[in-house]
Amino acid sequence: MENKFVRYGVVLLVIAAACAGSLAVVNRFTREVIKQNDLIVQNEARQKAMLTATAFKPDETKKVSDADGELEFIPAFEGDKQIGYVTTVTSKGYNGDIVFMLGVGMDGKVTGLSVVSNSETPGLGARVSEGPWQDHWKGVDASYTFKKTTDAFAGATISPTAVYNGIIRALTLFNKEVK
């Protein structure tokens, strides 16, 4: 009886070691591809958040923080003229984090918003990823107050509120620390 448990334990140990080794090898070969794909997604989101930008300068990023964490404001340029910043904001939604790229003009108003990832309920909270709703925020500044009838969806207020809170947080930090 005892040998049977030892034998099963050894078999499970060998299988677990083989699986861990396989995952390590796959991770090593895919790490760079995953980084490159993340960079492509980030650049596309930056461009959506700041449509007129022709260049972003991550090496001139301004890092600011508050009680909720740190935001990195990346300068955006149209030709040689700086037209604003883009920042990645993470807000707590209904099912998890909502990550979006926010463009902020030099006047402190939203130039665009692009949701990078979310795990909200399909058909409800996930509507924060829809273009028309994201365009709704263009021109908003830090003094904007959330209007449930126009800013939220029927049956889903947590996700739009989370995005709104992230926008106001970023705009407030921009006005205090970056502008």
What does this structure look like?
- By secondary structure, this protein is of the alpha+beta class.
- The chain is 44% helix and 26% strand.
- The chain has four helices and six strands, in the order αββββββααα.
- It has helices at residues 2-49, 131-135, 148-151, 158-178; strands at 55-56, 62-66, 69-78, 81-92, 97-105, 110-117.
- Strands 1, 2, 3, 4, 5 and 6 form a six-stranded antiparallel β-sheet that branches.
- Strand 4 (81-92) and strand 5 form a beta hairpin.
- The longest helix has 48 residues, at 2-49.
- The protein is extended.
- The model has no long low-confidence stretch (mean pLDDT 93).
Task: Spell out the blueprint of helices and strands.
Blueprint: H1 2-49, E1 55-56, E2 62-66, E3 69-78, E4 81-92, E5 97-105, E6 110-117, H2 131-135, H3 148-151, H4 158-178
Antiparallel strand pairs: 1-3, 2-3, 3-4, 4-5, 5-6
The radius of gyration over CA amounts to: 22 Å
Topology as a string of helices (H) and strands (E): HEEEEEEHHH
What does the main sheet amount to? 6 strands, antiparallel
Averaging pLDDT over every residue, what do you get? 93
Identify low-pLDDT runs: none
Q: Structural class, from secondary structure content?
A: alpha+beta
Task: Count up the helices.
Answer: 4
Q: What's the helical proportion of residues?
A: 40-55%
Distance between the termini: 73 Å
Query: What general form does the structure show?
Result: extended
